[in-house]
Amino acid sequence: MLRTPLSNDTITIVLLICLVLITLAKYTNTKRLYTYFGILVNSQYVNRYSKDLKIFDYFNSLIFLVFNLVSSAIIFQFVKADSNTNSDFKLFTIIFLAVFLFYGMKLVLELTLSKILQLDFFFKPYFFRKISYRHFFGIFSLPFLAYLSYHNGFSKVYALWILYGLGLLYLISYIILIKPFFEKIKQNMFYFILYLCALEISPYVILYKLII
């Protein structure tokens, strides 16, 4: 049985919004954006901008929205085929709000935990680096999302390959991320393992189970 291609209207709107947000980020700080594009190959961006420790300034907020939109679009394409709703926009809005709340609440819990454990000296620079790497994957995934969405439709297989690929890249970037903090991590190994289990591994396992 042939699969009916999904409408790309919602994805088109998402891609346009993402391009507008990236353009705004460029006009906000062109040099910072270009430096950000090289985050996977050098540490210039995190070394320079982590000194301010502003986890959510205007630039980071724009990139955060791009990441949420792209993540929501990938999940939207994955669940659309099994959804009974007649409104793509309604389904995407629900997914976007869920993703936005997921990462927003996760960040609040992480920052709260760091204050309770009195580990701000470690977690704040760590968080800045982590969200910088993570949100970059939103921009990185844009061309793949666009190509696969307009190339004979989008299937669950495509979505899974993107998710697995991003998961692998995220794992690699995470290893790169913790290298500068290795000595501090050794000194607070118990708290770091507690943090990994409670706020890094468990939420993504739950999210994966909900999607799949």
Automatic annotation (TrEMBL):
Segments crossing the lipid bilayer: 6-25, 58-79, 91-113, 133-151, 157-177, 189-211
Matching entries from InterPro entries are given as: DUF4271
The UniProt record lists the keyword Transmembrane helix:
yes
Tell me the keywords, alphabetical order.
Membrane, Transmembrane, Transmembrane helix
Pfam families the record matches: DUF4271
The answer on whether this UniProt entry bears the keyword Transmembrane reads yes
Q: What is this protein called?
A: DUF4271 domain-containing protein
